[in-house]
Each structure stands twice: as structure tokens, then as C-alpha cells.
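Quick start: what a row looks like.
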Amino acid sequence: MEMVKRGFITMELSEMLPQFDVIEEQGLCYLDSPNVATFDMRNTTSELHLHEFVCSENVAREVNGAFSLLNDAHAFAHYTNKMFTQWTNTPALKDQIKMRVHYGQNRASAFFGMGSLLLWGMEHKVNIHQPL
């Protein structure tokens, strides 16, 4: 199944989008916040790396026309959690959501596990990074 590519979100377009929470330390940003932490699994099922990048530019792991699926996963988990909380007046989860992106190889699915963990696989030519 061929996926339609949406293209890059440039700085001009990103100025219209809300920012998402990160932790910044000495010019490095980490995809970590009170509600969401995003890890780059580097196409393994065991390596766990909190995603970090130089704050001025984050284009790590560019795939299929997207600058960084790690950014997308982190932002959409944050916004989905925020929307759920606003609509129901209760948090979606008690614990921080842990996004594990680029999980394994030849996986074209996303799944939920262990209470607060979302895993996003990658398959050749297919990206899964929309929130559940």
C-alpha cells in the first residue's frame, strides 16, 4: 500500500502550529515533558534512547518526506492527552506516556502496552505516527 506523503513542515508553517513541551539543557532539547517522553528505538526492540537534539534544528531520522517522526509522535501524544483531559476533566493516564518510535523492523503497526507505553513500528515505505 503506497502512502501519500504530506511533505515537510517548514519554519513558516510551524509558526502557525503550537509548540510542544521539551526539556532544554545547554542548547540540547530532550523530547521529555511531565506527560510524554519520546524514545528513539533505532529499529530495535531493546535499545531505549530518550530523543535529544540541538534545539535550533531537529531533523533526526528523516523518513518519507517527514523531518522527524519522533517530533510527530511526541507532539500528537501531547495534544491527544491534552484534548482527552479537557473533554473529560480527568487525565487519560496516571503515568507519563512513553512513546517508543522506530520500534523494531518490518513493523507497520502501532500498539499500546504496559499501561502507558505506545510502540510505533516502521515498515519500508510506510510510516505509522498518528495518535491512537
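That is the whole record. Confidence is low (pLDDT under 50) at residues 1-5, 123-132. The radius of gyration is 15 Å.
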